[in-house]
Structure formats: C-alpha cells, structure tokens
Write a structure and sequence with these properties.
7% strand, alpha/beta, eight-stranded mixed sheet, 759 residues, single chain, elongated, 26 helices
C-alpha cells in the first residue's frame, strides 16, 4: 500500500496549486485512473459476469434528469463536441467515457499520430480523429442496440478519449430521468431508467456526479433524490449545479455551492453551460469555457467560492476525488482479483487442457489417462487412495467387509440340522437303507445328508464372488468421476466397458473355482479328518443325550410297565455292541408287552379312563391296521398311500440312530464349512481382486489404445469445451488485471519523475 499512499501524499501537497489552462499537473489520477480504465476494458472484453460480479471497479456515474445539462458538462470536461444532441432523450445507452491525459510530448507513439483521438471498445484499433465522427458512431451504435425510435437499453458503449486538454478520469453517462414515454419506449420507462441508474450507483465503488440545474429547487433534484437512496450520508456524491447564468436576476447559487441547502461531504461545483443558441451557432467548447470564466470573474457573489466554480475546477475536483476513491478501494480490489484468479486457475486445471491437435500428444494423453485410472483402481483396492474417506467404507474396505462380515459370518450361521426334525432324519435313514434293515450306525444316510447340507453352501459361495464383482464395478464408476474422465464421454464409457469386460473375465474362473471347491467337498466325505467327531464319540454323546431324555421321562412316573420298558431301553445302548442277538430278543419282548397293553385297553373300553401311553400305542396299531384287515380269519392287504412318511422314533435304538446321525452331520458340516469359508475368499481375491493389479492396465491398453480410436476417445462434450473456454478467458482477464496492478508502482514513479521535469 506504500506506493499509492505516498503518491496520495504527494498529490495532496500539490492540491493547493490552482490549475492552469495550459500546464497539466500530474496527480495520483494519472496513475490510478488509467489502471482502472485498463481493468474495465479487460473485464468488459471477458464479460464482467464471467470474471465475477463482485469485482466492482471504481468509477463515476453521471446522473441527472433529462435536459439538466449532463451532456454539456461532459463535453466541457473533454473540450470537444462529441455527444448526440436533440430536443428529446439522447443518451439511451450507458456511455463509459475514459478520459486519458496525454502530454504533448507523449501524445503519440509516432510522429503522424494525432494529438487528440478517440477509440471505441467495440471497434478496437480504429482511431477516430474527428469528433463529429465520434458523435455519429455513438448514434449508430446506440441505434444498433436500441433501434431508432427512442428505445433504451443498459448495454454499455465504451469510449476512450486521449488528449492533452483533459484530466484523467472515468465517467459513466447514464440516460436522463424521464417520466413520459415517447416512441418505442415502454409505459414504465421512468421505472426502467431509475432501476438502471440505481444498478450503477448502489455499488460502494461508484462515485455519483449528481447534475442539477440551478433554476430549479435543489431540494427536489431528481439526481440528489436518487443518490440519497443509496448514499444517504453524501459520502460518495459530488454535486454539480448547472445553468448558473440563467438564474433569476438578483439570485445566485452560493448557498447551494456551500452545501447549505443539501449538504454533501464531497461538496458542489457550479458551471455555466452552453445555451442552445451557442450550440446552433457552433460555438466551440473552448470559447464557452472562456465565456464561463469571464462570467465568474465579473460576478461578485461567486468570488468567495471561486474555487468551486467553473469547468476547470470541476475537472480537478472530480479527478482528485476519483483518484482518492480508487486508492482507498485498490487494496481490497487487488485481493479479490488474486482470489478470483486462483479460483479460475483451479477450475481450469480441473477441466484439463482439452484434446491436443498433435496425434502424438493425443496418444500420450490417452496413455496417461489409462495409467492414472489403473493406478487409482489399485490404490483404491489396497487402501492407498489419495483422498481417504472418514465417513464411510470405500474401495478395498468394502470388499473386505463383503468377504468377512457378510460371507464368512453368513456361512457360519448356516446349520443344516436346525431345520431337520427327528422324523426327517428317520426318513432319510430308512430311505438310505433301501430294502435292508437299518443298523445302529447308518453310514449311508449320514453321507446323503451331509452332501445335501454341503450343496446348500454352493449358492452363498458363488453369490460372494458376484457381490465382490459388483463392488469392483462400483470402484470403477467412482474413479471415472474422480479422475474427471466424464468430460470425455466416449473415453469414460469405453474405460467403463473395458473394465467391466475385464472383471467378467475374472468372475468366470472365480465362479468355476468356487464350484470346484464345493464339488471337492462333495467328492469325498473324509470321516478320518482329525477334527471329525467319529462314530464312537458320536455314540457316547448320543447315549448321554438319550439318558438325559429318558431320565426326564422317568421322573414323570408313568407306571411299572413303563419303568420296566425304560430300563430295558436304557440298557440297550450298552448291550448293542456286545450281542446283536440280544437286540432281537428285546424286540420280541417289546412286541409282547404291546399286545398286553392292547388287551388291557379293550377291557377298559367300557368307559373307564386309559393311560395316555396305552392310547398312543392303540393309535399306532390302528394306523398300521389301516393297511390290512381281517375277515373270517383271513388277512386282506391294502395298497399303500402315495406318500409315506417314517414314523417318529419308537424305540431307544431308533432314537439313538437319529441322535448319532445328527451329531455326525453337524460335526462334518462344520469341517466343510470352515474349509469353504477359508478357500472361497482366497479364490475371489486371486481371480477377481488381485487380477486388477496384475492386468487391468494392460487390458485397457490392448482394448483402447488404437491409432484410429484415440481421436474419437478424446472428443469432449460441447458443454465441457464451453466451460474450459470461459474459464480460460476468465483466467486470462484476471491475470492481465493482476499484472496491471503489479506494474502500478513503476507507473507512479515515472509520473513522479515527469512532474519534477516539467516544474
């Protein structure tokens, strides 16, 4: 901030010097105002909205009612006739007027260059030396934007005028406030013009040059009324009182110029405009300024405020105030430009450089994209991603969750015997025995049941591989978005398709391997496995369970016959391995007892209550007798039903068979389940997950890296190209603005040297 603070101090030391008509004193405005003009041109060409709406550049807006003398004030400051004239509204588009002081010795870059000239931003490089041509171009450009029938628009016209007869400043001439629509003007023309004016003067960066005629009540001035809406304290408003020479005889505007009527912190300046007769007689502006000076010199009332009178005083006042205003706002403006430039650079980097024209660079770019995508895939799987999430699992962590928390725990929760009743096991035992009687240890039924249980693990094992495959596809889609491949739609789609094909190539052998693992478990039931419970141990465990059940039944006290029967059955488990013959004898004994119970039931059928166990035996006999009947001492056999189920275990031997089978089944299933829970995740990792690290990049290159295919892969979406162009223009404009501000100290130093040379 030192360089412009010092410059302002130097400017203050010169402010006491009355400006002369022929010698220009360099002020801070000679350095700062051209800088703002340059920034305005840069931002206008790039589009202010594209650069950033909050980058409000300091400027002065000229506000006044129609025919208040605005145009005359501007022409007086320039010293030339160049604005459209007429009885109706003439300023129908905002005119940004950049006045640049060019000393005589620096008025041109070569000898033939004009001393005074103008240039329009919409016609860059074209110099206008005739100010009549400047007026015609303003009228033509106005008509191009609004039509020829008094239309109004807010689209700017930018005009730069360089001359040794002007002070450096920037002014915005706004349409005059009008109330009655004419021509093509809409019915709400007054509101539209007021809104347009307010859109400029509401910014804190905008100074307000409020032009009011002296022959009207200053308190009712349209310009001051609007300025008070946005600047109630008068901190940004400079008052200009015009037409002092046509006030009623015996009156003056001294009180207005002193700020006694409507106080303004920046004060007032009074001027005398050319009258319509002067304009008609083509009286020059310079002659009018001389006549103005003569008016104030011979008017005694204005002697005490002579420093506030005249166009020359207005020029110096406006230039000084604008320079101070710019100096106050420049540090914040510089910071905003730097911030916006950094944002534009980040946006440009995120959008990339676009497709190169050189085929070699195109191929290199595709290779770089494929390598970056494959490397990012590997990092995501192994947990080395540059942007790790702390809110949810992602990448390889999700795959680990699938394998351990979903598959392994789900497999461990599977119990094939849980849904099997003793009748189901008894049915399987009898079916496995076929036409043979069932021995104590039913090997065949055990093997049948254990294979059925193992087959139930096939679907979740295969499903595990497919879920991991889907998770890898999820990683692929995420990476395409993270690495901004979407701005190349064909490349993004091709990469996604190639990745999907590669993952399918890994899924097929993974599923085949998993099916083979399950088939290996089905191929051989290894009862010699060290973790298998074995027949003897299973028999002991079953006997303990049988004793527990029979003990609970005996405690209920069902009668002497039941006790005798229970005792015989409890001893069965111990005797069965010693003598098979004894088993048959026990069977005959039970049959005799059953017949006795049947006879007892017949005796008591006359109405006395029967024991529940006797009724159960009777029901069983009735069920069996349903398959045959006796007639005249002859047994008549019946056809069996279509569906036959095995009965519940009726003897301890049958129950023991069921219990042993259940124990053996659970033990061996746990072994097979453990093997699959260990080997299936390994197969998935080998064929699916680890294959990404081994071959994804090579597969992408083989699939997509073809000379004829590369240009089409880098075809961008039109929206992306438009965004990059806008971001590039924004960055260039902001870079140019930052460079202009950075070069400012040297400009001021040069200006300071020039001052010393001219003094």
């Amino acid at each position: 901030v030192f360089w412009w603070t010092r410059a302002r101090a130097d400017d203050s030391s010169r402010s006491s010097i009355m400006p002369g008509a022929h010698i220009h004193q360099n002020t801070l405005g000679d350095g700062l105002v051209p800088l703002i003009n340059k920034l305005q041109d840069i931002f206008t060409q790039a589009g202010v909205d594209n650069v950033g709406g909050d980058l409000e550049l300091p400027q002065i807006a000229v506000v006044g009612s129609q025919s208040s003398g605005k145009s005359s004030v501007l022409e007086a400051l320039v010293g030339r006739d160049f604005l459209p004239r007429g009885p109706d509204i003439c300023t129908r588009r905002p005119l940004v007027l950049q006045l640049v002081h060019t000393p005589y010795q620096h008025a041109s870059h070569h000898n033939q260059a004009p001393m005074e000239w103008g240039e329009f931003l919409h016609r860059p490089g074209e110099i206008f030396t005739e100010f009549e041509a400047i007026r015609e171009e303003i009228e033509c450009e106005t008509n191009r934007g609004t039509g020829t029938n008094k239309g109004v628009t807010d689209k700017q016209i930018r005009l730069k005028i360089c001359s040794p007869h002007v002070l450096t400043m920037t002014l915005v001439d706004l349409p005059g406030i009008t109330r009655v629509p004419v021509g093509d003007q809409p019915a709400d023309i007054e509101k539209r013009i007021r809104d347009m004016i307010l859109s400029y003067i509401k910014r804190e960066s905008c100074l307000i040059l409020a032009v009011s005629p002296a022959n009207t009540d200053l308190a009712n001035s349209d310009a001051l009324t609007l300025s008070r809406l946005v600047d109630p304290d008068g901190k940004r408003t400079i008052g200009v009182v015009t037409k002092l020479d046509i006030m009623d005889r015996g009156t003056d505007a001294v009180a207005c110029l002193r700020g006694e009527v409507v106080p303004l912190r920046l004060g007032y300046v009074g001027v005398v405009n050319r009258c319509q007769q002067d304009i008609a007689q083509r009286r020059s502006v310079r002659e009018a300024r001389a006549s103005e000076a003569e008016f104030f010199r011979h008017h005694p009332a204005y002697a005490e405020v002579i420093d506030k009178c005249g166009t020359e005083a207005l020029g110096w006042t406006v230039s000084r105030i604008l320079a101070d205003h710019i100096a106050n706002l420049l540090p914040a403006l510089s910071d905003k430009i730097a911030t916006r430039r950094a944002e534009a650079q980040r946006e440009l980097v995120s959008l990339g450089e676009g497709r190169p024209e050189d085929p070699g660079r195109q191929s290199a770019m595709v290779l770089e994209k494929l390598h970056g995508y494959a490397a990012g895939f590997t990092k995501s799987v192994v947990g080395k991603s540059d942007d790790l999430s702390t809110s949810s699992l992602e990448g390889g962590a999700r795959i680990h969750f699938v394998l351990q928390d979903i598959f392994v725990k789900g497999l461990e929760s599977l119990d094939p015997t849980r849904a099997m009743s003793e009748e189901d096991i008894r049915t399987a035992i009898q079916n496995a025995a076929g036409t043979k009687a069932v021995l104590l240890l039913p090997d065949d039924s055990f093997e049948v049941l254990v294979k059925q249980a193992i087959r139930k693990m096939s679907d979740p094992c295969v499903k595990c591989a497919r879920i991991v495959h889907d998770e890898l596809g999820r990683i692929a889609r995420t990476l395409i978005n993270q690495q901004n491949l979407q701005r190349y739609p064909r490349l993004a789609q091709s990469v996604e398709d190639a990745t999907r094909d590669f993952l399918v190539e890994g899924l097929v052998p993974a599923e085949s391997m998993i099916n083979s693992l399950v088939e290996c478990q089905l191929a051989h039931v290894n009862t010699a496995h060290p973790d298998f419970v074995g027949g003897s141990q299973a028999l002991r465990m079953a006997q303990q369970e049988l004793k527990r059940r029979r003990g609970a039944s005996a405690s209920a006290g069902t009668g002497a016959d039941d006790d005798e029967m229970s005792g015989d059955e409890n001893n069965f488990g111990e005797d069965v391995l010693a003598d098979v013959t004894q088993r048959n004898a026990l069977q005959r004994k039970r049959d005799a007892k059953n017949k006795a119970k049947t006879a007892l039931g017949r005796k008591l059928s006359g109405g006395s209550s029967v024991d529940a166990s006797i009724n159960k035996v009777k029901d069983k006999e009735n069920d069996v007798q349903a398959f045959y009947s006796h007639e005249n001492g002859v047994v008549s056999l019946k056809e069996p039903p279509g569906r036959i189920q095995a009965s519940e275990p009726e003897t301890d031997e049958e129950l023991l068979q069921v219990l042993v089978t259940r124990i053996l089944l659970g033990s061996y299933f746990a072994i097979s389940r453990g093997v699959l829970a260990d080997t299936v995740p390994k197969a998935v990792m080998h064929f699916l997950v680890n294959s990404v690290q081994r071959g994804l990049q090579q597969h992408l290159i083989q699939s997509l890296y073809h000379p004829n295919l590369v240009p089409s892969l880098l075809t961008e979406h039109p929206e992306t190209e438009a965004k990059r162009l806008a971001a590039r223009n924004k960055y260039k404009a902001l870079s140019a603005a930052a460079a202009a501000i950075s070069a400012m100290p040297a400009d001021l130093a040069a200006a300071g040297g020039g001052i010393g040379g001219r003094r």
